[in-house]
Amino acid sequence: MQLTVLGCSGTFPGPDSPCSSYLVESDGFRLLIDAGSGALSPLQRHAGLLQPDAAVISHLHGDHYLDLVPYVYARAYSPDGAPPALPVYATGGLAARLSDLVGGQAALVHSAYDVRQLQAGALQVGPFALTLARMAHPVECYGMRIEAEGRSLAYSADTGPTDALVDLARDADVLLAEAGFGPAEGPPDLHLTGRQAGQHAAAAGVGRLLLTHLVPWNDAAATREQAATAYTGPVDAVGSGDRYEI
Ligand SMILES: [Zn+2]
To answer: Which element (helix H / strand E) includes 144?
Structure first.
């Protein structure tokens, strides 16, 4: 299973990275996880504009889904012919929001996307067995464990500290965890600090920690150092274009 970081910037795009977006590949199947602002650029560089076979959107904050707006046009008006509607798993209301953002053209949205309900529990998408769990965030937001080829990748989505993330990531090969607060703690039930991401990784006993949702005004190196004080395994602060064999 391969993970390609398309975007890892939290809240707003940074000078070197779009907002949250990841491509997970196995057995020729490409699963797009989140599609934050700017994600379409590295998608074209590292895969192909129409390559994803399905998408999962963890929650409806703009930094996790806004590139689904221009992607409507990219799919619907492709000069090679519109591909079949992309299965997109998301929490309620995505299709209506996208329709508003493309001038009320609901039919256009539905030609581009087959929007399906995302909820807690098990979900099979192509070769990937997903387990979804509600995270601690102001809107309905799902962290996920993605398994294929006997390997496991856990992704925190956006969350404050929660045992649900530890359960989801238990003994996973890799935990891709947000560290949106960087080195300084913020309000509850919103984001993790680097240290808290490390604490979750240690409690879950994961093999490797990848830090993401790095807000451009925070120091990523300091965030990584903090995580390493709580978790003794390998820790990276990821960058756009980074690729990992899980
Ligand atoms: Zn969020």
So the answer is: strand 142-148
- For residue 125, report the distance from its CA to the centre of ligand 1, in Å: 23
Q: In degrees rounded to 5, what are phi and psi of residue 127?
A: -80, 0
Averaged confidence pLDDT in the chain? 98
CA of 224 to the centre of ligand 1 (A): 21
* Mean per-residue pLDDT, 90-99: 98
User: Which residues does residue 145 pair with via DSSP β-bridges, in sequence order?
Assistant: 131, 154
Going from the Cα of 167 to the center of ligand 1, the distance in angstroms, rounded, reads 20
DSSP letters, 181-203, are TBTS--STTT--BHHHHHHHHHH
Residues 20-40: tens digit of each pLDDT: 999 999 999 999 999 999 999
- At 134 the pLDDT is 98
pLDDT in tens, 196-220: 999 999 999 999 999 999 999 999 9
pTM of the full structure: 0.98
Q: How far is the CA of 137 from the centre of ligand 1 (A)?
A: 7
How far is the centre of ligand 1, averaged over its atoms, from the C-alpha of 78 (Å)? 30
Q: How far is the CA of 82 from the centre of ligand 1 (A)?
A: 31
Q: Which amino acid is at 217?
A: W
Q: 189 C-alpha vs ligand 1 centroid, how far in Å? A: 10
Residue 17 CB-density burial (10 A; 0-12 exposed, 13-18 middle, 19+ buried): buried
CA of 140 to the centre of ligand 1 (A): 9
